[in-house]
Design a protein that fits this description.
Elements: H1 7-26, H2 32-69, H3 72-75, H4 90-97, H5 100-109, H6 115-137, E1 145-146, E2 160-161, H7 163-182, H8 189-213, E3 217-220, E4 225-227, E5 240-243, H9 250-272
Antiparallel strand pairs: 1-2, 3-4, 3-5
Helix pairs in contact: 1-2, 2-4, 2-6, 2-7, 4-9, 5-6, 6-7, 6-8, 6-9, 7-8, 8-9
Length: about 270
């Protein structure tokens, strides 16, 4: 895969990224800091990577934002568990697409190499899969079980998985994987599609594993609830650390998991092809 720089395309890309960020901010999908971060990363992907690189980001952003709004009434009671609301800030934006710009730079430097694109596809498949699992998994009629020991946990708890959520994970990964492979005719459809999809699945499950073990999780003494929120819960009560590493918040878990999904994708692609 090769990329060619065009000043006109670059400027149009920056404008497109800015416009989409403004629309997302107006639609309450992003807060102000998230809009600035999205305008920067989206503009660079549009302007330097063109439609292929921008499309994977758009697939993630559009579907994740839509799912965040869908079934909002059924999910209204779960907001206290998550570190942040549905309006993404700069940390969430960079956690989800922070690998995109370095991989895009690698693609410019390594003309003709396929691995930067495949790594990007694996990272975006991971974050899309994880979002789908979170947004749809909480609707499961069966209670989630902690991925590490199989014990039942509350809906929305970090590290909890369900069958519905796992199926959603596969769907979210495949939705990114298919266009990612179709954009690059040099790739063998079957093996490459499988590598990206399974890489996204692995990255999402790794996210759950980190959430169940080492991610910083807190407790609200007033509500007697486990939560990712710190320093205060939605009720206004200060939260105390329950488990995990204090520095490892949800945004960092998402970023690490996307890198893991990218690495698994590359490993599987090398194995299958």
């Amino acid at each position: 895969m090769s990329l060619n720089f065009s000043l006109t395309t670059f400027l149009l890309g920056l404008a497109a990224g800015g416009l989409i960020a403004i629309l997302a901010w107006k639609a309450s999908a992003l807060n102000r800091s998230g809009a600035w971060a999205a305008a920067l990363t989206g503009g660079l992907l549009f302007g330097l990577g063109g439609l292929p690189w921008a499309s994977l980001l758009l697939i993630f952003f559009i579907t994740s934002s839509g799912l965040s709004r869908a079934f909002s009434r059924q999910k209204a009671t779960l907001g206290e568990k998550f570190a942040k609301g549905s309006r993404r800030d700069w940390g969430q934006v960079l956690a989800n697409d922070g690998l995109a710009i370095p991989l895009l730079a690698a693609q410019f430097l390594l003309t003709g190499q396929l691995w930067p694109w495949l790594a990007y596809a694996g990272a975006m498949a991971t974050v899309n899969a994880d979002t789908w699992a979170t947004e749809l998994g909480v609707l499961s009629p069966n209670p989630p079980r902690r991925i590490t020991d199989g014990q039942r946990v509350e809906r929305g708890a970090s590290g909890g998985i369900t069958l519905l959520g796992t199926l959603a994970t596969l769907g979210g990964a495949a939705l990114v994987a298919l266009p990612a492979i179709l954009f690059i005719p040099q790739l063998d459809l079957g093996p490459s599609l499988l590598a990206v999809t399974l890489g996204g699945l692995a990255g999402s499950l790794f996210d759950s594993l980190l959430g169940a073990s080492v991610q910083a999780i807190y407790h609200c003494p007033q509500c007697q609830k486990e939560t990712e929120r710190h320093p205060v819960h939605l009720c206004g009560t200060p939260t105390t650390q329950l488990r995990g590493w204090r520095w490892l918040n949800n945004d960092l878990v998402n970023f690490i998991s996307s890198a893991f999904g990218a690495a698994v994708t590359l490993g599987l692609w090398a194995l299958f092809t």
